[in-house]
Structure formats: C-alpha cells, structure tokens
Amino acid sequence: MRVAFVGQDVPAVIERKFLDIETSLVAEARQFGGQPKAERILSLIQAQNELAEISERTRSVTALVYPTLVGDRLEVLVIPPQTKGTPFLRIRYDLRPNQVPELVAALRSDLLDPTSQDYLMPAQELHRLLMAPIDAELKKRQIETLVFVMSGELRSVPPAVLHNGRQFLIEEYAIASLPALSLTRLQERDRQNNRVLAMGISEAMGGFGALPAVPVEVRTVAQATGDVFLNEPVTVQTLQQQRQQNRFGIVHLATHAQFTGTTADGAFIQLWNERLPIAQIPNLNLDSPQVELLVLSACQTAVGPGLGLGGMALQEGVRSVLASLWAVSDAGTVPLTLGFYQELQESRTKAIALQDIQQQMLRGQIRVANGQLTGVRGLGALAVPVAGTLDLRHPFFWSAFSLVGNWL
Fold first, then answer.
1. Is the dihedral of CA 196, 361, 180, 307 positive or negative?
2. Are 178 and 203 within one domain?
3. Mean pLDDT of all residues in the chain?
C-alpha cells in the first residue's frame, strides 16, 4: 500500500489544497445553479474554529472529509476542529487506472438489488481506499460526526454503507454531506419552528408511476404540527401561497423528481399536472421565510454536480436537505422519513437523528410486513400498501437518503 501522509510539517500545502477544493466546488455550484445566496470562502483556521464551536455546542466532535480523485491518485483531506489538532492529507498512489470509478459503479449497481449481498465487496474495497488511511487519526482525535465534501463520481457513493469488514461506517459515525463548506449556513437549528408543510403526489403523473404509500407518509409527517396537500392541490401556486401565509420550518415533498445531466437543464420536481423546473427554485424564495429542512422524498435528488436537486435547494437558502441517491419504493421510503422525524425531536443534530434511524433499520428494529409498518419509535403500527415483507436491513433502503447541508 503506497500512502503518503501530509500533515503539520507542510501547513501551506494543506491550506492551499483546502482553498483550491472549496473554490472549485463553489465555481461548479455557480455553473450548475447560478449565484448562491450564501457564499463565503473560509480560511482553514476559520473552518477549524467553526468546527470547534459546533463540536462543543452539539457534544459531537465533527470533522470535514474531502476525498478527491486527481487522475489515478486519491487524496483524502481531513479538517478536524481546532481543538483536535492539525488538518492532514493522505494520498494514495497505488490505484489501478479507473479503479475508483469502477468500484463506485459496482457499488451503486449492487445496492439496487435488495435481495443481494454483492454490495459488500465494493463497499469494503472503497472503505479500504477512502477510510482506512485516515481511520486511526479519526479515532485518536475522537471524531464522532463526519461531514463529507465529495466531488465527481464519489458524490454517488453513500458514505454510510462503506464497510470495514465488521461494520458499516454509519455504525461508527453520524454522517452528512456538503456541496462545499463555503455554501453552507451553519446557524444553530431553529427547534421552535417544527411546523411541516407536507405535499405529495400519489397518483400516476407525468410519465411516472403511482406512489400509493404517499398518503400515509404525508399525513403522518404532518399529524402533530403541519398542513397536508395531496394530489390536485400540489402546485407551484399552492406551495408559494402556503409559504407566504404560514411560517413552515419544514417542507416535505413526496413526489417524483428527475435529474439527468450536469446542469440544471431538464431537472425538475413533478407536481400536479406540472413540473417545477429546478431553474425556477430561486422564485420560491426558500430563505424568506427560512426553510430549516427540506425533505425530497423522491428519486435521485442528491446526485449530480453540487449534490443535485438537494444542493440546488441549499444554494437558494434552505439550511438542510434530506434527499435520495437512488429511487426507493414509496413503501420503503416511509420507514426512514417517518423515523427521521421522530428521532429529530430529541436528537442533538440532524445527522445524529439520521444515524439513529439508519441503525434501527439495519438492525431489524423497524419492519414492514403484511401491510404494516412497525417499530418506529413514538408511532404505533401503520398500514402501508405493500404485499409481503421488505427487508429494511438491506442498505438499499437505509442508505439511500443523504443529509445535505447544515447537519446541526
């Protein structure tokens, strides 16, 4: 194994690497979705100081991880809190040509079969390449939350599913993703505004199939403090009017979406008899009033440049987005989204809430069988329109969703 360690002996190299990556990611975000509403290029020491403050507030020591492919070289830059030592860079030179892209493609393909365990080989190999070189340092510095800032093909990898031969990464760390630290609003979560605007399309629409579990999802999400709109009222006009008339901290969209390219062209969210083009998201003024959390319970909303539709929403002022890396059946989506909301009420951070529900699913504590969802903390048995049993222990279900943006 040929791995180089670059640490405190060459701080200028680390500083330049950090600034180069952030500047490049911000430029990519501009190309994808226009001028971000929040943009600030932090120095390395500013980033470390912010991480130290966040780690103290949340009682979860947090580090940024920047894996980058440079030709056939893999670089992993780790930025810990200022209180946990200096940043460091690990560089692998022993890669075969196209090794990482091929592993990423294999992992993605294998994860899409919920009856197969074939995903373990690429998940373990990617862990060996990405995580093994930094694992000892993470443990030494007592890191508990990892925030990944990916680029290129690596964005389509769910870090939660990386496997060290004994356990998944989500069993060791809470995990979130950023399009760039410079594009992220890191204010403390507004815990007082938990009101939910829940909108969903359950009927076949726009060439997409029906989503029969959506009514259960949106009604349960909003049953305590929220408003529900299902099918025909789910329009751009309704979304804008409701946002103007009410202060919703959370917007939950359970519908299809599509992202097919390297720009915002052709990307959209399916509403009732209309599509919301991603290029029109700025017209929604998602930062006025502030949306604390946007949940996109839809297809592949966290892939692509800048982390896809989720990253685009962040650029327009949303603090955090829960979005998917691939299409999951609506019945398979319900356990994670409902469980996430239940955990969010008490969790120190959104990242920890997602970690908790993902662990419960992979351990078999939450079940879908014989038309019923059981095991979600705080909820009784719920009827869901699915025949047979879903094996929610498989990462096809629990690793599909990624928390993008402010993880607090």
1. negative
2. no
3. 90
Question: Is residue 191 a part of any domain in this protein?
Answer: no
pLDDT score for 3:
64
Clarify whether residues 132 and 268 are in a common domain: no
Single residue among 183, 206, 239 that ends a domain in this structure: 183
Considering the domain boundaries, does residue 190 fall inside one? no
Q: Which residues, given as ranges, of the chain have pLDDT below 50?
A: 8-9, 302, 305-306
Domain holding 31, by residue range, is 3-183
Rounded CA-CA distance 202/218 in Å is 10
Domain count, the chain: 2
| Co-location of 223 and 129 in the same domain | no
- Are residue 170 and residue 238 in the same domain, yes or no? no
64 and 178 co-located in one domain: yes
